[in-house]
């Protein structure tokens, strides 16, 4: 009852307003072009009125945008004499006039807070929004006949660099008007101009988000003209990386038509579509819309193609999807893993990198996925990514993916048998800094599996490279190298190889300098020295080293591991130097 009373109250107020305004004059009775211009002025007045509203700010902002777009289309039409010859304007003008008066009434209620209920007002605003959408579609249909004269097909000059925001807004508004009312040739020209300005100046992305009609741009993705569709996907891929545009594209439901382009478009359109989907799905909240509209199937089909320009961004989208646990399970059921393993073998390098990152995510938390990857030859494919012919970025992604298999005994044999240790040796010898951290972390995990894996690493000649990395600039690389050495030296055969070089023991002792405060690093070095003291030759090398003083100083500061090493040392020379407390 309350809602009905509120509606009656608004009706009465509306009748009073209508009486004060007088009966709406039909502009068509005099001059259709004048009527269109009068509508443009009225829209500006209504837009100004909406800025005084005190509630439902988001809805009113959306309504202002729609009024602005409608005004732009009408303003363009008012400049063409042949617009008055189109009989469909006679229906549009009074309908828009009525909606504008309705909008004024709602704006007044939201300014004076005189509405009777929030739910009812929200419903009224939704009705208003729907009417504006209807008018815009009506205007689009009127313009489909191509009322633009030939001389208007020439696009206005692009603002020079450093132009005012007003000039940029005008130029973008003009381009979108041409998209809406122009024929196919004019649409293509406008889209080309949009893609060019976006490539030259990223500031135009924000201008488009504030001035352009994103809903209409998204509708062009379903254009029957292949050229228009292709150019539209290029524009969308350019703006999809900007947050302001990204949210508008999602609101305009851009993902479903982008999927359709990926399925049926030409090569360039498919590439741009996949790139757009990649940028949109960097936000994990958007991945659900893609899966709900059959995007996984379309992406799988694209990844099976030999066209690297399409497979790389398609694989990147699947990588983004794999960041969501529920979707990982869905993709595993859809058979994505074999496709990505195959992409590692035969795809272009960019696609291989995304495939590697995808497999890393899929294998990270699911044993079933790891087993499927191994059965399909995924480990060998990942190891092939580590070859010197690959870029540093590719090798880095390969090492990171392989890490997910390095903690389990069941994958030790496939890893070692694939030549992984040799690739690590070649990589570390190359002296490249990028990729050292994931390579060492993988090596450390393998070393901790069993004595067999420790022996394999020692036999591969990796201990010498680990000693060199103890001087690395990266604290993580230094610590990981020290921890790996500590693990390897627990094996007697590795200790014998390590002690064959006098330099190795001296290096460990030198790095115990008390002035260096890296405690974890020293802890791993001391652990390695404890292992070395298990043999007579190891104890002798420590005792005879000129760097023994660093070990002594640590022991004097009550470092437990240092005291353990000292206690295990033997020999008269040493005993004459050290205090009896080390025997305690």
The portion of residues assigned to helices is over 70%
Number of helices: 35
Strand content: under 5%
Q: Uncertain regions: pLDDT < 50 for 5+ in a row?
A: 1-29, 148-154, 572-576, 578-584
What value does the average pLDDT take?
85
Helix/strand-derived category reads mainly alpha
Q: Shape from CA axes?
A: elongated
- The tally of strands reads 0
Q: What does the radius of gyration come to?
A: 35 Å
Ends: how far apart? Answer: 93 Å
How would a textbook summarize the main sheet? none
CATH uppermost class of the domain at 2-147: Mainly Alpha
Topology:
Layout: H1 2-21, H2 32-50, H3 57-77, H4 89-112, H5 118-143, H6 165-181, H7 184-200, H8 203-211, H9 214-219, H10 226-239, H11 243-251, H12 255-264, H13 267-280, H14 287-292, H15 295-304, H16 308-321, H17 325-333, H18 336-346, H19 349-364, H20 367-375, H21 378-384, H22 392-403, H23 412-417, H24 420-430, H25 436-447, H26 451-459, H27 462-468, H28 475-488, H29 492-499, H30 502-510, H31 519-532, H32 536-543, H33 548-556, H34 560-568, H35 572-577
Protein name: DUF7032 domain-containing protein
Domain DUF7032: 39-147
Pfam families: Arm (PF00514), DUF7032 (PF23005)
Structure description:
Residues 1-32 are annotated as: Disordered. This is DUF7032 domain-containing protein. Residues 39-147 form the DUF7032 domain. The protein has 584 residues and is an all-alpha fold. Among the domains are: 2-147, Up-down Bundle (Four Helix Bundle (Hemerythrin (Met), subunit A)), CATH 1.20.120; 165-280, Leucine-rich Repeat Variant; 501-584, no CATH class. Helices cover 72% and strands 0% of the residues. The chain is built from 35 helices and no strands. It has helices at 2-21, 32-50, 57-77, 89-112, 118-143, 165-181, 184-200, 203-211, 214-219, 226-239, 243-251, 255-264, 267-280, 287-292, 295-304, 308-321, 325-333, 336-346, 349-364, 367-375, 378-384, 392-403, 412-417, 420-430, 436-447, 451-459, 462-468, 475-488, 492-499, 502-510, 519-532, 536-543, 548-556, 560-568, 572-577. It is elongated. 43% of the residues are buried.
